[in-house]
């Protein structure tokens, strides 16, 4: 057993390609490991986006740390246990600024999903003929559809629910988050009304 888990060992070696691969292929990563890695990525992102002091030395300015959106997408898409994830969020994402970064991304993803057109039938461009002359659905090119880091809406909403369950009091005390919380409510409220 690795001390701190697989992701901690890979983070120590700065092997982000393997971490991303583990989040796609390994089925038994702990929620605590995943949230610790997310917190690490957010901290690195906030440190590199913060204004630099002119007198400060630049040490290790080059990093392989993935963008927060890419890493969060992998975390949201990973199969988890809700109680364990809530506990991991409470332990790892305990600063309002870190939660705010995640909340902003989740809000933008919900907005992207709400702006999408849902087609029930394929268009003529999506249809083709197979070797026998029968009309079939063309295979999608990986470069076009696979380029998006957008997880499924159900995964986003599930993760959002667990994030809010675990950190609602912290985020309520952070005034910049109020606008995003209202925006999320405006986007989700019509869906809840429709379901009821």
Structure description:
- By secondary structure, the protein is mainly alpha-helical.
- A hairpin with a 5-residue loop joins β1 (127-129) and β2.
- Residues 142-147 have low confidence and may be disordered.
- It has a two-stranded antiparallel ribbon.
- The protein has 9 helices and 2 strands, in the order ααααααββααα.
- The chain has helices at 6-12, 16-25, 31-49, 68-77, 82-92, 96-115, 142-145, 153-172, 176-195, and strands spanning 127-129, 135-137.
- It is globular.
- α3 packs parallel to α5 (82-92) and α5 (82-92) crosses α8.
Summary?
The protein has 196 residues and is mainly alpha-helical.
Low-confidence stretches: 142-147
Main sheet overview: 2 strands, antiparallel
Total helical segments: 9
Number of E strands: 2
- In terms of quaternary structure, the protein is single chain
Radius of gyration: 20 Å
Shape designation? globular
* H-E string: HHHHHHEEHHH
Binned, the helix content reads 55-70%
Strand order of the largest sheet: 1-2
How far apart the termini lie comes to 48 Å
Overview features:
9 helices; 196 residues; 2 strands; mainly alpha; two-stranded antiparallel sheet; single chain
Describe the secondary-structure layout.
Layout (H helix, E strand, L loop, with lengths): L5 H7 L3 H10 L5 H19 L18 H10 L4 H11 L3 H20 L11 E3 L5 E3 L4 H4 L7 H20 L3 H20 L1
Antiparallel strand pairs: 1-2
């Amino acid at each position: 057993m690795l001390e701190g888990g697989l992701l901690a060992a890979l983070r120590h070696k700065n092997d982000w390609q393997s971490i991303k691969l583990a989040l796609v292929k390994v089925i038994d990563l702990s929620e605590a490991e995943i949230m610790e890695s997310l917190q690490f990525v957010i901290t690195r992102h906030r440190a590199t986006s913060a204004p630099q002091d002119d007198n400060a030395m630049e040490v290790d300015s080059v990093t392989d740390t993935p963008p927060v959106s890419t890493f969060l997408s992998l975390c949201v898409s990973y199969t988890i246990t809700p109680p364990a994830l809530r506990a991991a969020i409470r332990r790892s994402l305990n600063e309002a600024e870190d939660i705010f970064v995640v909340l902003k991304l989740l809000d933008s993803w919900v907005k992207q999903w709400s702006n999408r057109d849902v087609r029930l039938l394929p268009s003529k461009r999506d249809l083709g003929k197979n070797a026998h002359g029968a009309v079939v659905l063309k295979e999608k090119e990986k470069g076009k559809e696979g380029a998006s880091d957008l997880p499924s809406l159900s995964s986003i909403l599930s993760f959002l629910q667990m994030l809010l369950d675990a950190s609602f009091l912290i985020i309520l005390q952070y005034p910049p988050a109020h606008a995003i919380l209202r925006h999320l409510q405006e986007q989700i409220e019509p869906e809840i009304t429709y379901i009821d």
